[in-house]
Every structure is written in C-alpha cells, then in structure tokens.
Amino acid sequence: MKNKKIVGFIAAAAVAFGLGLPSNSHFNADTEIGISYQGHVENIGWQAPKKDGEEAGTDGKGLRVEALKLNLTNAPAGAHIEYQGHVENIGWQDWKTDGQEAGTDGKGLRVEALKIKLKNMPGYSIQYRAHVQNVGWQDWVSDGQEAGTDGKGLRVEALEIKIVKVSDNSTVGVSYVGHVQNVGWQEPNENGQISGTEGQGLRVEALKLNLVNAPEGAHIKYQGHVENIGWQDPAEDGQETGTDGQGLRVEAIKIALENMPGYSVQYRAHVQNVGWQNWVSDGQESGTDGKGLRVEAIEVRIVKTQDGSTPKPVDFIPVNNTPAPTDDDSNIPEPKYENNNINTEWDLSDKLNDAMGKTKNPVGSYVWYNNSQKRISDVFGGLNSDSNKVEIGDMSTDEMKADIEDSYKDNDGGLYTSNNGIVYKVAGVYKEIKSTKSNDLTTLKAAAQKLNTQFITSGYDPSQTFDRFYVNTDGSGTHWVVRVLAYFTNK
C-alpha cells in the first residue's frame, strides 16, 4: 500500500435541533427532528415538558430528580427513544421507551444515573448531560453512555438532552459491513447503525468500510487488531481488515479520514464482557488491545465539524509495534538443516509463545504403544514432540501428518478424543519461517506476527488447533522464528 498522509478531524458537536412536543406528531421531512422530556422533581412533582437542550429539573436547589419521561418529536416511522434509569435502592431499571416513566413517582427515591439511545434513527445521535449532587454539570455523553453516577449515592438534580444530526448519506456518509462468527458477511449498514450482533456472544471477524458521497480524492482508512496476529496493515476504501474464514476475533479497530476537510469519523465497539464503549474518533483505538476480548459489534458515523477545523488524527499503530525489518533481515535465507547445526532456544520460545497468547491446545489424550505396552499421553505433548522435529528440520510436515494418521488405528479412527467426547482427525500441518538478526523479544514478536499466511479457511475446528512458535539459531547471530500449525476436524 502506498504511504499517504492520513488527514482527519477531531469530532465536534454538530447542529442541535429543537421543536415542541405534539403528542401525535407526524414526520415531516421539512421539519427538524427533536426531543421533548419531562422531569418529576422532589417537592415539585411533574414539571412542564422541556425540549432540545433545555434544562429539566433544578440547578442549585439541592432537589432530586425522581422520574423522567422522554419523547421524540417529528421522528420518522419506526424510530424510538429508549432510556434506562439507575434509582436509589433499586439499581438499573428495565429500559423504557417513548414516554414511559423511568424512575419512580411518589416514593421519594432519587435518580442517580441515566442512559439514553436512539433506535432506527441512522444519521442521528442523542447527546445528554446531568447535573449531579456535589459535582455540578458533567460532560456531555451520547448514545447509551452513562450520565450521572452509579454506586456513589448521589442524586441527579437536572438534565439537558438534545438530538444531533450526524449524516444520512444524502451528503457525506459511511457504509460498513461485518463478517460475523456463524453468520458470515452481513448486509451493509450506514451512519451509526449496528454492524455485528449485540447480546449473542458472537465475534466480529472482519470489516470493510466505504465512504458515501465523498469528494474526489477522499478516503477512509482503518486498521484492525486481530487475535494471534496483532495490528494488521492498514486497509482503505472497501478492503478487508480482519480475517475471513479463519475463526479469529477482531479485538480493536482504528479509523481515520483522508482528504476530508471539515469532517470527522466517530466510532465505537461493543466488546465482550464490557458492552458498548464510549465513542472515539479519528484514529483513536476502539476495542481492546492485549486483553483477548472479542469485538461483537461496531457503529460508525461521519460528523461535520462545527468550525470546519482539520486537526491531525491519532497516527495508526505501526505494524507489529516495531520498526520494519531491515533489508538485510529480509534477505536472510531459511536455515540450512544439515549436520545438526540448528538449535532451539527454549527459554525464548516459551517467552514468545506467552507474548503471542498461545495456549496449549488441543486438549485431550491419545493411545500409543511401546513394545506392545499400551500408553496414554496428553495430545498436546505428543504433537509438540513431532512439532519439535519439524521446526529443526528432522521431520517434514507431510511426515508429521502421516505420523498423526498412523495413530488412528489405536484411537477410534482419529488421533484423539477431546474433553467433549469428539474424535478428531488431522486436517493439515503447516510450517512457516521468518528470519531476524536480533533475539530481542519485541523483534521476535514482530517476526512472529508476520507468520500468518498458511491458515486453512474451512474444514477444521478452530478450537482444536495446535499452533506453536520456536526460536532457532545456528550460532551465527541469525535467528529464525518458526511457526508450526496442525489443524483438526471432527469429520
């Protein structure tokens, strides 16, 4: 990929839209979408409705907000507003929608926090902030983030809420599609819609993003952090980031714009065990890096900056977090397996596998015979023994596969039976090599992250893959990172 200077823009608030509260309003394309909200306040009761950024509740009187009702105004068919209150002695209540009461009325209990989000409203964002006891006005948050406090026993005293238009693809927008575990490629989504799944525990495995109605020369660039790989090379304009068919999770994503003066790209990820993270923008990282957590969904939107500013976005992570190998490194040949001159540096190998997050898979046991005496051994240990021979050149990958297949006769037609009772057969054995002139762990990890070219794409169980790295040397100062993989299937 050509190196281009990535130019993007830090997000700023867009134009807020305000209307009144007709209870049965019909959507009018010529009228701006707004919001109306009403607070029930200590010693006051239900206040008159407020709209589009106005204050509901009280500021400076020390009175608690006890309940809230929210409604959209002039919203399109099928659009809804959803909100959830955290209430004294109760905690988080169920989500409410379209004028239902969140909080309590007549029980003297304070609202302590609130989350608000839009449904079926692509191109729009809901933004809100709370005035909190002993804190004052908090920063604005948006789209399901928490306003107020949770677990501190502090009352919400006032709220301000507004609808912000981000993009509807009638001008500049973004389209994106995700490849999801057990689903495959989904239909494209646009401008703040969810790509992936929410609440199903399925990993996003790959993503493609495109600009819509963008000016000539504009680009969207993105970089994925992937299980067992790390940060990949940046992709752009519909190219794939992540992997398709390898069963690997996307763990983080960075997105930026190029040649798009006056615009910012905003995005957020729904992460395993975390839920929806805060919105970030313009090259910042969304998701997690180094925690082994899957991204389950993303939302992306284009926002026009309020002042047309063009600040530089956060730079993408250099691939592998290390300088690129020197030309000398790239020209080092594969090791010469002769006269037993190749040695494995076991301590470095163990550290590298730990750094790459390798676990001792697959798990199970297999039967073998020594002088007609039956033995039962750990399947990982047996594979690792053959793999050691492969990585120093004493056995080929074909010979390792044949050795595995020779065990079928003693193991119910496969190599081993896993802990879930399934019999597994070998689907393929592969070996890859990357050279370097340094045995520094960071450099070795960078070399290891480049070894990802021989994954098979189907016909195997990803949870039962043997995958190990070894660090070899011949004493000359050259080091080789060797990766040996064995795939297994239950078919």
Features of the shown structure:
single chain; 491 residues; mainly beta; 3 domains; seven-stranded antiparallel sheet; six-stranded antiparallel sheet; 38 strands; 9% helix; elongated
Summarize the structure.
With 491 residues, this protein is mainly beta.
Which percent range fits the helix content?
A: under 10%
The portion of residues forming beta strands comes to 35-45%
What is the rounded distance between the termini?
Answer: 40 Å
Number of DSSP strand runs: 38
Task: Determine Rg (CA atoms, Å).
Answer: 28 Å
Strand order of the largest sheet: 32-37-38-36-35-33-34
Shape: elongated
**Average pLDDT figure:** 83
| Main beta sheet strand tally, sense and closure | 7 strands, antiparallel
Number of helices: 5
**How many structural domains in the coordinates?**
3
Q: Which residue ranges are poorly predicted, with pLDDT under 50 across at least 5 consecutive positions?
A: 1-30, 320-331
Structural class: mainly beta
Oligomer: single chain
Keywords: Signal
Protein name: Protein containing ChW-repeats
